[in-house]
Amino acid sequence: MTSKNKQAFVSWSRLIKSFRYASEGIKHTWANEQNFRIHSILAGIVLIASTLLGVSVVEQALLILVIGGVLGLELINTALERCVDMITKEYAIEAKIIKDVAAGAVMVFSITAVLVGITIFLPKIIALLF
Ligand SMILES: Nc1ncnc2c1ncn2[C@@H]1O[C@H](COP(=O)(O)OP(=O)(O)OP(=O)(O)O)[C@@H](O)[C@H]1O
Protein backbone atom coordinates (compact mmCIF):
# COMPACT_ATOMS: atom_id res chain seq x y z
CA MET A 1 0.00 0.00 0.00
CA THR A 2 1.41 3.40 -0.93
CA SER A 3 0.28 6.65 0.57
CA LYS A 4 -0.29 9.61 -1.76
CA ASN A 5 0.57 12.02 1.06
CA LYS A 6 3.86 10.39 1.99
CA GLN A 7 5.99 13.06 3.67
CA ALA A 8 9.76 13.33 3.66
CA PHE A 9 11.45 12.22 6.92
CA VAL A 10 12.81 15.77 7.25
CA SER A 11 11.12 18.55 5.32
CA TRP A 12 13.37 21.62 5.33
CA SER A 13 10.58 23.93 4.21
CA ARG A 14 8.35 22.74 7.10
CA LEU A 15 11.26 23.15 9.52
CA ILE A 16 11.95 26.70 8.29
CA LYS A 17 8.21 27.52 8.50
CA SER A 18 8.03 26.28 12.11
CA PHE A 19 11.03 28.46 13.02
CA ARG A 20 9.28 31.42 11.37
CA TYR A 21 6.03 30.83 13.30
CA ALA A 22 7.95 30.43 16.56
CA SER A 23 9.82 33.71 15.87
CA GLU A 24 6.47 35.44 15.27
CA GLY A 25 5.29 34.20 18.70
CA ILE A 26 8.45 35.54 20.35
CA LYS A 27 8.13 38.88 18.49
CA HIS A 28 4.48 39.16 19.56
CA THR A 29 5.42 38.51 23.19
CA TRP A 30 8.29 41.02 23.04
CA ALA A 31 5.96 43.67 21.56
CA ASN A 32 3.10 43.08 24.02
CA GLU A 33 4.52 41.78 27.30
CA GLN A 34 6.55 44.17 29.46
CA ASN A 35 7.72 41.33 31.76
CA PHE A 36 9.19 39.45 28.79
CA ARG A 37 11.14 42.56 27.72
CA ILE A 38 12.41 43.14 31.28
CA HIS A 39 13.46 39.48 31.67
CA SER A 40 15.18 39.47 28.25
CA ILE A 41 17.18 42.63 29.03
CA LEU A 42 18.12 41.33 32.49
CA ALA A 43 19.22 38.05 30.86
CA GLY A 44 21.53 39.98 28.51
CA ILE A 45 23.03 41.93 31.45
CA VAL A 46 23.54 38.71 33.47
CA LEU A 47 25.29 36.97 30.55
CA ILE A 48 27.59 39.98 29.94
CA ALA A 49 28.36 40.19 33.70
CA SER A 50 29.09 36.45 33.82
CA THR A 51 31.74 36.90 31.10
CA LEU A 52 33.27 39.97 32.77
CA LEU A 53 33.40 38.30 36.20
CA GLY A 54 35.00 35.11 34.88
CA VAL A 55 32.14 32.78 35.74
CA SER A 56 33.03 29.14 34.98
CA VAL A 57 31.63 27.29 31.95
CA VAL A 58 29.42 25.07 34.14
CA GLU A 59 28.05 28.10 36.03
CA GLN A 60 27.41 29.89 32.71
CA ALA A 61 25.57 26.83 31.42
CA LEU A 62 23.43 26.88 34.59
CA LEU A 63 22.66 30.61 34.06
CA ILE A 64 21.71 29.97 30.42
CA LEU A 65 19.45 27.11 31.56
CA VAL A 66 17.53 29.20 34.11
CA ILE A 67 17.31 32.19 31.75
CA GLY A 68 15.88 29.95 29.02
CA GLY A 69 13.45 28.53 31.59
CA VAL A 70 12.17 31.96 32.63
CA LEU A 71 11.77 33.19 29.04
CA GLY A 72 10.14 29.92 27.96
CA LEU A 73 7.66 30.10 30.84
CA GLU A 74 6.90 33.75 29.93
CA LEU A 75 5.99 32.58 26.43
CA ILE A 76 3.73 29.80 27.77
CA ASN A 77 2.14 32.31 30.17
CA THR A 78 1.40 34.66 27.27
CA ALA A 79 -0.10 31.79 25.24
CA LEU A 80 -2.35 30.85 28.19
CA GLU A 81 -3.44 34.50 28.67
CA ARG A 82 -4.39 34.73 24.99
CA CYS A 83 -6.18 31.38 25.21
CA VAL A 84 -8.28 32.58 28.18
CA ASP A 85 -9.03 35.91 26.43
CA MET A 86 -10.16 33.99 23.36
CA ILE A 87 -12.56 31.87 25.47
CA THR A 88 -14.00 34.76 27.49
CA LYS A 89 -13.66 38.50 27.80
CA GLU A 90 -16.13 38.41 30.73
CA TYR A 91 -15.06 38.12 34.37
CA ALA A 92 -14.82 34.43 35.27
CA ILE A 93 -13.25 32.94 38.38
CA GLU A 94 -11.76 30.07 36.27
CA ALA A 95 -10.17 32.63 33.94
CA LYS A 96 -8.69 34.42 36.95
CA ILE A 97 -7.32 31.16 38.39
CA ILE A 98 -5.75 30.06 35.07
CA LYS A 99 -4.03 33.43 34.57
CA ASP A 100 -2.92 33.75 38.20
CA VAL A 101 -1.55 30.18 38.36
CA ALA A 102 0.34 30.64 35.08
CA ALA A 103 1.78 33.92 36.39
CA GLY A 104 2.66 32.10 39.62
CA ALA A 105 4.63 29.51 37.62
CA VAL A 106 6.66 32.30 36.03
CA MET A 107 7.24 33.88 39.44
CA VAL A 108 8.40 30.61 41.05
CA PHE A 109 10.93 29.98 38.29
CA SER A 110 12.04 33.65 38.26
CA ILE A 111 12.77 33.47 42.01
CA THR A 112 14.68 30.22 41.39
CA ALA A 113 16.71 31.97 38.67
CA VAL A 114 17.48 34.90 40.99
CA LEU A 115 18.64 32.48 43.71
CA VAL A 116 20.88 30.67 41.20
CA GLY A 117 22.27 34.06 40.12
CA ILE A 118 22.95 35.13 43.72
CA THR A 119 24.67 31.80 44.48
CA ILE A 120 26.96 32.23 41.46
CA PHE A 121 27.61 35.98 41.56
CA LEU A 122 27.73 36.80 45.29
CA PRO A 123 31.04 35.04 46.08
CA LYS A 124 32.64 36.68 43.03
CA ILE A 125 31.38 40.15 43.96
CA ILE A 126 32.55 39.68 47.57
CA ALA A 127 35.99 38.53 46.32
CA LEU A 128 36.18 41.64 44.10
CA LEU A 129 35.27 43.99 46.95
CA PHE A 130 37.43 42.54 49.75
N1 LIG B 1 -11.51 37.08 32.25
C1 LIG B 1 -11.02 37.29 33.48
N2 LIG B 1 -11.75 36.95 34.56
C2 LIG B 1 -11.28 37.14 35.82
N3 LIG B 1 -10.08 37.69 36.11
C3 LIG B 1 -9.30 38.05 35.09
C4 LIG B 1 -9.72 37.88 33.72
N4 LIG B 1 -8.72 38.33 32.91
C5 LIG B 1 -7.77 38.75 33.73
N5 LIG B 1 -8.07 38.59 35.03
C6 LIG B 1 -7.27 38.94 36.21
O1 LIG B 1 -6.46 40.05 35.92
C7 LIG B 1 -5.08 39.69 36.00
C8 LIG B 1 -4.34 40.38 34.88
O2 LIG B 1 -4.81 39.87 33.66
P1 LIG B 1 -4.23 40.30 32.27
O3 LIG B 1 -4.86 39.51 31.20
O4 LIG B 1 -4.31 41.78 32.17
O5 LIG B 1 -2.79 39.78 32.47
P2 LIG B 1 -1.45 40.57 32.60
O6 LIG B 1 -0.54 39.68 33.39
O7 LIG B 1 -1.66 41.94 33.10
O8 LIG B 1 -1.07 40.54 31.10
P3 LIG B 1 -0.74 41.72 30.12
O9 LIG B 1 0.73 41.87 30.30
O10 LIG B 1 -1.17 41.15 28.81
O11 LIG B 1 -1.53 42.94 30.55
C9 LIG B 1 -5.04 38.17 35.93
O12 LIG B 1 -3.90 37.63 36.58
C10 LIG B 1 -6.33 37.80 36.61
O13 LIG B 1 -6.18 37.81 38.02
From TrEMBL:
Asked if the record carries the keyword Ribonucleoprotein, the reply is no
Active site, renumbered: 74 (proton acceptor)
Q: Which cofactor does it need?
A: Mg(2+)
Q: Name one Pfam family in it.
A: DAGK_prokar
Top-rank taxon of the source lineage equals Bacteria
Q: Which UniProt keywords apply?
A: ATP-binding, Cell membrane, Kinase, Lipid biosynthesis, Lipid metabolism, Magnesium, Membrane, Metal-binding, Nucleotide-binding, Phospholipid biosynthesis, Phospholipid metabolism, Transferase, Transmembrane, Transmembrane helix
| Any coiled-coil regions, as ranges | none
Record: residues binding ATP = 14, 21, 33, 81, 99-100
Could you state one GO cellular component term attached to this entry?
Answer: plasma membrane
GO terms for biological process, alphabetical:
phospholipid biosynthetic process
Instruction: List the molecular function annotations (GO) for this entry.
Output: ATP binding; kinase activity; metal ion binding
Q: Which family does it belong to?
A: Belongs to the bacterial diacylglycerol kinase family.
> By what name is this protein known?
Diacylglycerol kinase family protein
Q: Which organism is it from?
A: Alteribacter keqinensis
